[in-house]
Known about the structure:
Elements: H1 12-23, E1 28-32, E2 38-42, E3 57-62, E4 67-73, E5 78-84, E6 96-100, E7 110-118, E8 125-131, E9 143-146, E10 156-157, E11 162-165, H2 171-184, E12 193-198, H3 206-213, E13 222-230, E14 242-244, H4 254-270, E15 277-279, H5 287-293, E16 297-305, H6 314-318, E17 329-332, H7 333-349, H8 358-369
Parallel strand pairs: 3-12, 3-13, 13-16, 14-15
Antiparallel strand pairs: 1-2, 2-12, 4-5, 4-9, 5-8, 6-7, 6-9, 7-8, 10-11, 11-17, 14-16
Helix pairs in contact: 2-7, 4-7
Amino acid sequence: MTALPTAAGHEDRVIAWVEVWAARRKDLALRRDKAGNLIIERAGRPRPPAKGAVPPVYVTAHLDHPAFVVTRALNTRTVELEFRGGVHDAYFPGAAIDIFDHRKHHDRPHRATIERLDARAKPFKRVRAALKVPSGAIRRGDIGRWAFPGRLSESCVDERGLFHAPACDDLAAVAAALSMLDVLRPRRGMEHVGVLLTRAEEVGFIGAIAACKHRSVPKNSRLICLENSRSFAESPIGGGPIVRVGDRMSVFDPRLTNRISQIMSEHEKTRRGFRWQRKLMAGGRCEATTFSSYGYESTCLCLPLGNYHNMQDIDGVAAGRRPARVGPECIAVADYHGLIEMLIIAIARLDDDNLPDLKAQMEELHEKYGFVVRA
């Protein structure tokens, strides 16, 4: 999945993959909302849920990645494209890109080189690229993405256990959400669990906003948003999946965030070797902010990510110490499997009455030490 070309508003190849995946599982039902977001639920599940039922849980991820969209082919050698997503201007001039044309069964890309960047174009940056081999097959709406040498243009694992791919953000999270659903769907008591896959996140959470406005999932739903977030020294790749408490715009729902953190703290006591982190991750924005702002109970779990948005050494480039070069994104395979485990354990215990209650713990402390403030 992480090798599939995708762009905001042009997620067709990933959507087709997910549709095939869902169709092979007869106990699941897939539907699209008015914005084209995908909702996957247990077949026959009542909508809206019966009164008194356990509130639904939806694991969300987005289907797009920063990429180019062809606006016009000027001739058989020159193509104009707009860039939908956030990448610094320094990475564009002279960069190689691969353009995938509209033919469904033809994913051999057309290699091109960026010759001109208009960073002030609206609504998106615009580039002009020269094709290495002339072609008349490229048309408006085709997808372009950064080109990498050799096998790095696909998905691969290195000797350190790092997974490299054109688009971990957020297709690795889509894969994790589907893997979680594959495990939980046959279990009794998990009928309330579904997946929501959104479109056009990279240009301002457009799919998530539409899902909120159209009430694509019930308002009492609990949303666990999955992301791939830029790794920092305090949130290392390989340190385990992350319970993300907020982003650079907001903090997420404290009740749901704390509940999952509590479950993970209990889980690591009995699961030897399980690693996880709890971090703010303020280097970017997350759909959990969108859902929270529309009144949904939402939080985020994420994977620490290298080469965020395909930008190598962002800080070194910004400081002028390194030339700007693009590269495949990377995550740790162990973190990826840890995220799936985190989802399965957290969702299975989300409504567990046997978990220690935070307020009860506060009351216990007051009972034990309250005498120090009594007259």
